[in-house]
Specification:
Blueprint (H helix, E strand, L loop, with lengths): L11 H25 L5 H13 L3 H14 L1 H4 L5 H20 L6 H24 L6 H11 L4 H19 L5 H18 L18
Length: 212
């Protein structure tokens, strides 16, 4: 049996639960961070800035940008999975729902609570989504494609995220202390949650697993 056809560990229903639970939690985290007013992560500062200029909801822009980013996969020879398509559609929908339902904080303590919950939610959501093993998100797939061209993932992520952050800020997206908190905390938290939900990569024929 080839590596490509070997199954991921865990039943399909369990993987789907992690996938769509992760997407819902990710959208909710975006809504919390936007509602906090303390500063968005780079991509969502960009999404918010575009939404303000275009008169659209942030979720609509998230969906549109995700679809456009996937077009960049074509020259990079990236293949989407069920998780990729679901990411494009559902994260934006869940983000809009959260923004609509969450009350605007009336005090700085609630703003900070929103921010902290947002970072924890997005870190956990990322782990759940990736551990489902059903395809990368459109932006993560872009990183993978750039790696194949010889660009390091750190440099590629830095260049893209600093660019979208700058454009988002110029367009009116909220950039602030929350942006810094997200940048500092998201990596360690995702790594922590990864101990609870190990990333499931398919085994090779000899029983070993490819490096992430």
């Amino acid at each position: 049996m080839s590596e490509a056809t070997l199954p991921y560990a865990g039943s399909l229903p369990a993987r789907l639960l992690r996938l769509y639970g992760g997407l819902a939690l990710y959208g909710g985290g975006i809504g919390l961070q936007v509602r906090s007013g303390l500063g968005n992560n780079p991509w969502d500062a960009f999404h918010q800035g575009l939404a303000l200029r275009a008169g659209l909801s942030i979720g609509t822009v998230i969906i549109a940008v995700g679809a456009l980013v996937m077009l960049l996969w074509i020259p990079l020879r990236q293949r989407p999975g069920v998780g990729t398509i679901s990411n494009v559609i559902f994260v934006g929908l869940f983000a809009d729902a959260a923004i609509m339902l969450l009350p605007t904080p009336g005090h700085w303590t609630l703003s900070w609570l929103y921010l902290l919950l947002a970072v924890v939610s997005i870190a956990l959501a990322t782990t759940l989504y990736i551990s489902a093993g059903m395809g990368p998100g459109p932006r993560d797939g872009l990183m993978t494609g750039l790696m194949r061209l010889g660009l390091s993932v750190r440099l590629g992520r830095f260049l893209i995220e600093i660019s979208v952050l700058a454009v988002g800020w110029l367009l009116g997206g909220t950039v602030g202390v929350g942006t810094v908190v997200f940048a500092v905390a998201i990596g360690p938290l995702t790594q922590l949650f990864g101990r609870w939900f190990p990333l499931e990569t398919p085994a090779r024929a000899d029983g070993s697993r490819p490096a992430e």
